[in-house]
Design goal:
Two copies of one chain form a homodimer. Chain A is an alpha/beta fold. Chain A has three domains: 53 residues, lambda repressor-like DNA-binding domains (434 Repressor (Amino-terminal Domain), Orthogonal Bundle), CATH 1.10.260.40; 145 residues, 3-Layer(aba) Sandwich (Rossmann fold); 127 residues, Response regulator (Rossmann fold), CATH 3.40.50. Helices cover 44% and strands 17% of the residues of chain A. Chain A has 14 helices and 14 strands. The first copy, chain A, has a six-stranded parallel sheet, with helices on both faces. Strand 2 of chain A pairs antiparallel with strand 2 of chain B. Chain A binds a DNA duplex through helix 2 and helix 4.
Amino acid sequence: MTETASRPTLEAVAARAGVSRATASRVVNGGDGVREPLVERVRRAVEELGYVPNQAARSLVTRRHDAVAVVIAEPETRVFADPFFALQLRGISKELTTHDSQLVLLLTEGRDDHVRVGRYLAGGHVDGALVFSLHLDDPLPGLIHGAGVPTVFGGRPGWGDGARNSVPTVYVDCDNRGGAREAVRHLVGLGRTCIAHITGALDQTSAVDRLDGFRDVMVDGDPALVAEGDFTPAGGERAMRELLERRPDVDAVFAANDLSASGALRVLRERGRRVPDDVAVIGFDDMLPIAEQTDPPLTSVRQDIEEMGRLMARLLLRRLDRRSGDASLGGDPSSVVLPTTLVRRVSA
Amino acid sequence: MTETASRPTLEAVAARAGVSRATASRVVNGGDGVREPLVERVRRAVEELGYVPNQAARSLVTRRHDAVAVVIAEPETRVFADPFFALQLRGISKELTTHDSQLVLLLTEGRDDHVRVGRYLAGGHVDGALVFSLHLDDPLPGLIHGAGVPTVFGGRPGWGDGARNSVPTVYVDCDNRGGAREAVRHLVGLGRTCIAHITGALDQTSAVDRLDGFRDVMVDGDPALVAEGDFTPAGGERAMRELLERRPDVDAVFAANDLSASGALRVLRERGRRVPDDVAVIGFDDMLPIAEQTDPPLTSVRQDIEEMGRLMARLLLRRLDRRSGDASLGGDPSSVVLPTTLVRRVSA
DNA sequence: CTGAAAGCGCTAACAA
DNA sequence: TTGTTAGCGCTTTCAG
């Protein structure tokens, strides 16, 4: 035990099994085309020696890394108020795990970080990237494209559905616009006549899409009934105050997410408006720890966030497989938009 | 542009700069002992070619990976209600970034995952590990120790401060016990006489330590004034109800974290008890998005979570540096316990 | 079906 | 100070 504790190599496994390194390698990588008895012997040797392949050596020759970068570009602290990313990560992690791929997390906070991330991706350390939280003016997509790494985006990027330099953009998103429409229609169905919207941060497509959904239903709505928020509770409060000032007769609010809805709720309570009697409120995301804990519990548009994460990973992995020969899987995967559902609670 | 897009190698850089591969390597790795003009030439070549070192090749010979695993072992969904992990991750990420180290995220959900993580760590893919959220019966520490990877734990592990097989356990935690004492003393100072405690999940040391702190102050307290929670709002509600039933005269509550405090607050409101007039409430963590959003805003024991993450990473990196020669840095780093501060808001 | 041998791109002795 | 050279551990033709 006082020997050098260096881990056993394939060489050692081969020696112990009485085969060549090549055969040992074949067995370790699936064992196709090796006769059963040998397979068995190698397996045993692996077991006994506690052999684990050296990923570095393997990558050096295969040029695969079995690792995927997850880039979260959120300069604001929003990330932390919102369980959103944790859920996505969980979904991604689950999917990657089943494919024996590792998750390399890249958090960025400012301009410098972008450069760093770009370099890292260009460095060929990972097989692909999953990228979140793009803002409209984000330099990241450019850097990523330059790096030439297969990428799937979380949320529709701001540059439109089209191809970008002949590489089609693949993303996973929920039906923000449709979900918003459903929420507003529900308010209409409740008999509300003065329906307002608190937007999200309008440099993100999710906020824009939800606003569009609102307008789809409220054609000819009073522009004063739209107040700009930023997805935070504080933003929701501010917007709600504005709204109350501009249109005291407001009887319903659709907020761009649960967090801003919770802010709105607080202002309404403070002003003595009863929810939902005086003002009905609907959020978006159906983030359980928020929606269920507000007073009153929040009606919200649900999106399956963990599933979105899982799907992103799956699309990326499929694309990677396709690349490395497995031509079977049909064409290049394309973007996916997941449906939403309205979850009714007390607030509307 | 239609050429093979394979990235340039050191060889190419050397050729372009008119030096040997060794010299090019030296420059890329800091350039010590290379004469200025050559350094300059190599730098330029790197620039022009857009050279990025192949990490796999480098690891193969150096046996360093410039990567650290972060293991979050939280089978419950608590992770997502709580911005806790996101904050720690941010701290860790910042620190790792300044050391050019990568963050490999390992999320585990069940027994199988533990095995997988153990194998991964044993596989020598990373230089070290940062491990969170241990529960008392967790098999992970054993696996990790077996893997022989330098590790720093987040939160005091359950097996005591001592060494484990001659390797001292290093962890970073906040002063849970002291913070709890301060909170309870504050309640006493407020003139409260019937002070209750809602515990966290008692299979975690943080919950046990906070309970101990409570008892430090409330020696001879009525055992009926301690109700078991689990760090969730639902657990907090349940515990609060019990408490109200067992001791209707309760006039103060110290909850093991903000989430359970928020649950308690809800029950108190529902029962018509005014906070803080009838019952004073204190939480723990001072998680802003929670503590500031409750009604009324929550007095809480603050711990600097991001700093804890940063510190964990720093300790680990120092240990790694020490290992690889840099003997300068003094002895092996030991555990750190960070102080807490009581943040007064309205609830107490 | 199996083995021998040639590298993948890089660092680190060792020579010059 | 710089260059030469020998691998790091693995996969993958190519013979046998």
